[in-house]
Amino acid sequence: MIDEASFIDGTKILANANKYSFVWKKRTIKYRELNVEKARKLLQEIKQVEVKITVDENNFDVDQLDTIIALLEQRIEELNQQVSETAKVSPNPAKQERRHAKKYRRALEHCRQKNLEYRTQIQIAGSRNSYSKTDHAATFMRVKEDPMRNGQTKPAYNLQIMTSSQFTLGYDLMQNPTDTRTLIPFLKQLAQNEVLGREIVADAGYGSERNYKYLEDELPDCTALIPYSTMIKENSRKWRSDDRKVMNWEYHEDDDYYVNPAGVRFNFKRYAYRNDKYKFHRDFKVYQAEKYDENHQVIPQALTPRGNTKYIMVNPQWEYFKAKARKSLSKSTTYSRRKYDVETVFGNLKAYLGFKRFTVRGLKKAKSQIGIALMALNMKKIAGRLSIFSINFKKRKNRSEFQMKFRTVLLI
Predict the structure, then answer these.
(1) Beta strand 5-14 pairing with 22-24
(2) Beta strands 223-225; 5-14: pairing state
(3) Sign of the CA dihedral running 289, 295, 300, 306
(4) What is the DSSP secondary-structure string of 119-148?
(5) Helix, strand, or coil here: 92?
(6) How many CA atoms lie less than 13 Å away from 401 in the CB half-sphere?
(7) Strand pairing partners for 314?
(8) d(CA 93, CA 332)
(9) 284-300 confidence digits (pLDDT tens)
């Protein structure tokens, strides 16, 4: 019933969580820094009102709040004893100092509590940008169900499935809203379960240099039919006529230099690299424009509006993967099956079963629930295939040959 093509796609499914119970990681980090600054100001005020404790606010660490609060409590006990000994003194300086000490103890205890709260929130978020207070495993994402049409993020999970002939052969529930970052861990799981076919088909949302590199290095026996995001645009007339695109420039491989449409030559200068926020390493070649012509006159087209020499950065590895993706897609006709193979499963899941939101909380429980739903779709698909076989069986005159094939299908 299945073949060697593996179709991968993802969709967002709402979590069983309050859509307004969000915690944003960046905002939490900002509030934690403000809380630390507030604690420093309190220590400076403690010295100004002459509460007699030894505190070094220059080398202050937020983890020292427990020690400072313990010193304040010890000082308050000493002041209580002094107040009892000098009860008839008025005005009593011990009472004034005790009042200030209690005030700053309460403020520092509030800072300590907030610091513990912010630390816990950052630990729960982990590498994510947000999470829900009612379901810590859910991440706020943009989903297709947007009745307000304002792009409001909602707590959801990113469901990734792999299908073949509309049968779901593998799935995983991701907390990351970006499909680009879900492909590698999903492929590792599929390869471990030995369900990957020879052709891996996915849409342009999965086309990135990191994913192409993993497929070539770790899965050399598989053919990746994954377009990149600008593949269709690069074939348009507008893109090909744009002089700012390096791919439209004249390139001389022997001497390794580019010539733009204005006639400015860009010579190779040096190698460079960049690491993104996910620590993926990218190598670049930097080409700098020739500033002077043969008569040692400045070329105006080689300068920026501010008078600096123009330069470009080219990623050879990315260009290689782009060319490889174009070649693979031009030779195969499997990619055209993607829409009615994997998209049909999502349509049946949401329209036929009405599964648009989880009824359980937690990643483990949600993964089990969606697994049962996908298994039900597979059973429905098999039942439909068997009913077709039975209809054909009644129409055939020679039933013995078809009966053997039907029994073979049942055994499988």
Answers:
(1) unpaired
(2) unpaired
(3) positive
(4) HHHHHHHTTSSEEESS-TT-EEEE-S--TT
(5) coil
(6) 5
(7) 285
(8) 89
(9) 999 999 999 888 899 99
- How far apart CA 264 and CA 310 sit, in angstroms, is 10
Nearest Cα residue to 370 out of 138, 141, 135, 159: 159
Q: Tell me the two tokens of residue 379.
A: 């059973």
Identify the burial level of 107 via C-beta atoms within 10 angstroms of its C-beta, where 0-12 means exposed, 13-18 middle and 19 or more buried.
middle
Structure tokens given for 411: 């055994």
Q: Is the Cβ–Cβ distance between 167 and 381 less than 8 Å?
A: yes
| 100 CB-side CA count, 13 A | 15
DSSP 8-class letter at 34: H
Give pLDDT tens digits for 323-375: 999 999 999 889 999 989 999 999 999 998 999 999 999 999 999 999 999 99
* Residue whose token pair is 């002089």: 243
- Model's pTM, two decimal places? 0.82
Largest CA distance in the chain: 117
Tokens 């600008």, residue located: 230
3-state secondary structure of 379: helix
Note whether 161 and 168 are within 8 A (CB). yes
CB 156 within 8 A of CB 138: yes
CA distance 190 to 262: 50
